[in-house]
Amino acid sequence: MANSQPIFDYRDESQADRLARKSKDSPFMIIGIIGLIGVCGFGAYKFKTKGEMSTSVFLMQLRVAAQGTVVSALTLGLAYTLAKKHLFKDDKAE
């Protein structure tokens, strides 16, 4: 009836194995994380030359840019997955 053993034991998985598994399952998540790190690095570099802008406004704009980068990458990944699954499906594979 019901299988009492788990299919995959996540406790035996190291962080590197988990990242490798996640990158295979959702490669656009990794692109989003890399984009987030890039935006944060660029923001840290530009923080010195922010001019007359207040720190709170600068950080608010940086947060919006970082979130937009991640959401855009995940949206592109979702659109790619849906297009691959429904629009470009191979009839011979079914």
TrEMBL record:
Signal peptide: none
Location (main, coarse): mitochondrion
Transmembrane regions listed in the UniProt entry: 28-45, 65-83
GO biological process, one term: mitochondrial respirasome assembly
Superkingdom as given in the UniProt entry: Eukaryota
Keywords from the UniProt entry: Membrane, Mitochondrion, Transmembrane, Transmembrane helix
Pfam family of the protein (one): HIG_1_N
PANTHER family reported in the protein's UniProt record: HIG1 DOMAIN FAMILY MEMBER 1A, HYPOXIA-INDUCBILE GENE 1 HIG1 -RELATED
Name used for this protein in its record: HIG1 domain family member 1C
Lineage, uppermost ranks: Eukaryota, Metazoa, Ecdysozoa, Arthropoda, Hexapoda
